[in-house]
Design a protein that fits this description.
Among the domains are: about 70 residues, GIY-YIG endonuclease, CATH 3.40.1440; about 110 residues, no CATH class. It has 17 helices and 15 strands. β10 and β11 form a beta hairpin.
């Protein structure tokens, strides 16, 4: 599923000979010393050879620069296709060597969550960065920061009458209450201002609001608005509409990543280190798994570099390429290809604004045209069949990623969640790749993921062609 690390010996007396063997590509590397128990130097870089030349070759211009040549005896590395993959691989290597200290080395703090204290007799909401598997059903997040989580919790509680106090309550009519009860923003269970059943009903409403990122409240309010409007009760309809706007504003404070921690699952697509592939990652059960290589052979990607203005206006798409398309015109095309020279059909594809990601397959088709023509009508798969094969290939890759493995420890859970949060909340222009969440039934949106694969592949091709 993942590429193996490559390794070469390093001799300080002939450092340049070893460094010449390294590629000038993005990679994660580890520098090992002579002693077996020595801790390796682990890092990531967009240019492996350039980075190690700075670390392992002495420089008279920079005498204070870190020099490791005298300590290193072996270099290991693995090429990566994206910063996301590099960070994940670097963390896994550091965690293997340093354990929980890897979190400090990569500055991976625990993400913030809004936690519903449902086990309390009178439930309330708190903001925390300490979550456990026991409370994963009631922890909602991750948020980009603690401030963002606190703002969401505060605005959400304005839509309900849940208590804000933090002490364990022992309801007594002699309790003085608080400012929230005086402002009618709390049901005041502290001095038995409501029954336990009424407070439990309000708490259940808050829990549903958090679990659905406000959708449950919006459905209720919109139903009340429509009912009041149908009964010509326009004042009630206007009040319900104002509440709808408030609920929508609160909902906007929580991104799509904010979910119950126990239900947080996502597929991430990233560029791959290998050509004609896209790297797939899966976040599930508190762990990031991947990359799984998904081959783009057999997929046609719209090519922005073709100069077709219509394609600039449309989103990146993909479509399956049947093995023997347009066979009725193959004889004419073959003759035209012989007359006009090799590469004509490839050029035609580029002129149409598409780029075939199976150049080897296309070459094979040209070599075997005579055989294909002899069997035409019997071997041509339909577009639906090819699309089904591509979806089956994606389903197999996701199944491989979700295969049962060992449960992650607390450090791995925190590190992987922090890496996902850090990548997701980057500005969109600086967040390469895409993320996809399951639907309400827990099924993956296969077609949407394939379209995302096409967009990632197209960007990788455009970047490669500009180099």
């Amino acid at each position: 599923m993942t590429a193996e690390f490559q390794s070469i010996p390093f001799d300080p007396a002939d450092a340049r000979a070893a460094l010449k063997q390294l590629p000038e590509r993005s990679a994660v590397f580890a520098l090992y010393g002579e002693a077996a128990h020595a801790e390796p130097y682990i890092g990531r870089t967009p240019n492996l050879r350039g980075r190690l030349e700075r670390l392992l070759l002495p420089s008279a211009k920079h005498p204070k620069r870190l020099q490791l040549a005298g300590r290193v005896r072996r270099i290991e590395w693995r090429l990566t296709g994206s910063d996301f993959e590099s960070l994940l691989l670097q963390f896994e290597l550091l965690e293997r060597v340093y354990g929980a200290k890897a979190l400090e080395r990569m500055h991976l703090g625990a993400p913030s969550f809004v936690r519903f204290l449902g086990s309390n007799r009178y439930p309330r909401v708190v903001v925390t960065n300490r979550t456990s598997l026991r409370d994963a059903d009631w922890a909602y997040g991750p948020f980009p920061s603690r401030l963002a989580a606190e703002r969401f919790a505060e605005e959400a509680l304005k839509l309900f009458l849940l208590r804000r106090c933090v002490e364990d309550l022992d309801p007594n009519p002699s309790h003085p209450g608080c400012v929230y009860s005086e402002m009618k923003m709390c049901l005041a269970p502290c001095y038995q201002g409501c029954t336990d059943d009424r407070y439990a009903e309000e708490a259940a409403g808050v829990e549903r609001f958090l679990a659905t990122r406000g959708e449950s409240r919006l459905v209720q309010l919109k139903s009340q608005r429509e009912e009041a409007s149908a009964n010509l009760e326009f004042e009630q309809a206007a009040a319900a509409h104002a509440q709808v706007l408030k609920a929508e504003a609160v909902r906007a404070l929580a991104s799509e990543l904010v979910r119950p921690l126990s239900q947080l699952r996502a597929v991430i697509t990233q560029a791959s280190a290998e050509p004609a592939e896209v790297a797939l990652f899966l976040y599930e059960n508190g762990r990031l798994r991947g990359p799984a290589a998904f081959s783009t052979v057999g997929m046609r990607i719209q090519n922005e570099q073709s100069g077709s203005t219509s394609l600039f206006a449309q989103p990146m798409t993909l479509e399956p390429v049947p093995e023997n398309r347009d066979q009725g015109n193959e004889g004419t095309r073959e003759q035209e290809s012989r007359d006009q020279g090799p590469g004509t059909r490839d050029q035609d594809d580029r002129d149409k604004g598409t780029l075939l990601l199976s150049s080897g397959q296309a070459a094979g088709q040209r070599d075997n045209q005579g055989t294909d023509q002899g069997n035409k009508g019997t071997r041509e798969p339909s577009a639906k069949a090819v699309r089904g094969m591509i979806e089956a290939r994606l389903d197999a890759a996701l199944a491989e990623l979700s295969a049962a493995g060992e449960a992650p420890n607390a450090a791995v859970r925190q590190g992987h969640l922090a890496l996902l949060k850090r990548w997701y909340y980057r500005p969109e222009a600086r967040r390469p790749g895409e993320i996809f969440f399951p639907d309400d039934d827990g099924a993956w949106p296969m077609k949407a993921i394939l379209r995302g694969v096409g967009r990632v592949a197209a960007k990788s091709l455009a970047k490669a062609s500009s180099v």
